[in-house]
Amino acid sequence: MPLVEINFDGIVGPSHNYAGLSLGNLASTRNAFQVSHPRAAALEGIEKMRANLALGLNQGIFLPHPRPDRAWLAELGTSIEDADSALAANAMSASAMWAANAATVSPAPDTSDGKCHLTVANLRTMPHRSHEWPWTLAHLRLAFANGAFAVHVPVPGVFGDEGAANHMRLATSHDQPGVELFVYGRTGGGFPARQHVEASKAIARFHRLDPERTLFVEQSPETIAAGAFHNDVVAVANGPVLFAHEKAFADRDQVIGRCGELLPGFELVEVSDGEVPLTDAITSYLFNAQLVSPPDGEMTLILPSEARETPTVWNWIERHLAGNGPIRRVEVVDVRQSMANGGGPACLRLRVVADPGTIDPRFLVDEEKLDRIAELVARCWPAEIHNDTLKQPGLIREIEAARAALLDLLQLSELA
After folding, report:
1. Would you call 347 a catalytic residue per the annotation?
2. Per-domain residue ranges for the chain?
3. Residues 222, 198: Cα–Cα separation, whole Å
């Protein structure tokens, strides 16, 4: 089988809530303590996956992590029953739904040993995310157990690594050697820069990448200060195309020049600040979109509905589609529950270029499997969660039972 791109989406967990835990993520802060709707959120994500399947794309899933994370609380000498409200919120976070932060992936054509390498992100800059990696590692070791893959433990926690949200790949096609860009930060005003350059360099070494075709790129401090807590809020790549805001990188000219030197056919689609101000790009998540190449050959941008509701963004989209640019189609999806916590379409998925036949089939989906998952979600996921109810025993029982039912449905008892 040829190598193809597979989008692995995180199923939104039954503990999805708005605790405002993510400093620098403006949407998360803005919506802190609002009522969340886990059932609606998970069904929105499933509908996004259906839209991908309709385009002819390959689709996979990752499952919610156990919440509350009782093992993590035990390491802190407490329990969900005894923890204070802040610690309980960190233990109940459903942020593992954003699979773009699960790992960094380098496909086999880029690596010296011909394997697809995945390194689990440590997510050390935020307490609520820092305890995700053991369960993510369990997912990846199970899904990618075939010898075609190499799964690595996280970079030591002293260097923050946030996974594929700060990594891009350019290539003439998915099965050809590519150019990999690792985007790191240094400062962002009052907000932390979450990706450390040393973490990026370590991952490149683990993945056995060609140093001549590996770029370490500094994210613009201005974008971090404006709320672009990950690179994928201001730039995304697909095939030979880099789609970016003009303020995305600290040294824009050097980045573009090196990409042009290393990749024949490289194509830049750049949005100027005059056309779409940085604030509009961030609030609409224009770049936190899935830029994909369906089998029909029409490069497609999968956007959140907020992009259509932002006049500067939608005007730019219409002008681009009317011209001769490489992006030929736009699909709009409703992921409002995720967006309210600062996660657009791109946040919800991890891209893996591989032969689908080498992946555990329990992690791959079609329409029929999505139907079964949606039915279970509609039946078992909480309809809403108020932040002040996170420690209620009845809610905790409901959340844990819902995840157990999903594991049973997908026959993934190894993740119990």
Report:
1. yes
2. 4-415
3. 21
Containing 45, the helix (H) or strand (E) segment is helix 38-54
Of 16, 117, 139, 230, the active-site residue reads 230
Residue 351 predicted with pLDDT over 60: yes
Contact predicate 80/68, CB 8 Å: yes
Q: Which CATH architecture fits 4-415? A: 5-stranded Propeller (3.75)
Beta-bridge partner residues of 210: none
Residue 32's pLDDT is what?
67
Report the distance separating Cα 27 and Cα 5, nearest Å: 29
Q: Which three-class secondary structure state does DSSP give residue 238?
A: strand
User: Which of 116, 132, 320, 347 is an active site residue?
Assistant: 347
User: d(Cα 143, Cα 126) in Å, to the nearest integer?
Assistant: 26
Positions of E strands within 136-288: 149-152, 167-170, 179-184, 214-218, 235-238, 241-245, 267-271
Q: Is 162 annotated in the active site?
A: yes
- State the average pLDDT over residues 356-362: 98
pLDDT (0 to 100) of residue 24: 61
For residue 45, which amino acid is it? G
* Annotated active-site residue in 162, 180, 306, 331: 162
CA distances in angstroms from 413 to 8, 62, 406, listed in the order given: 19, 14, 10
* 268-279 pLDDT, tens digit each: 999 999 999 999
**Residue 126 per-residue DSSP state:** S
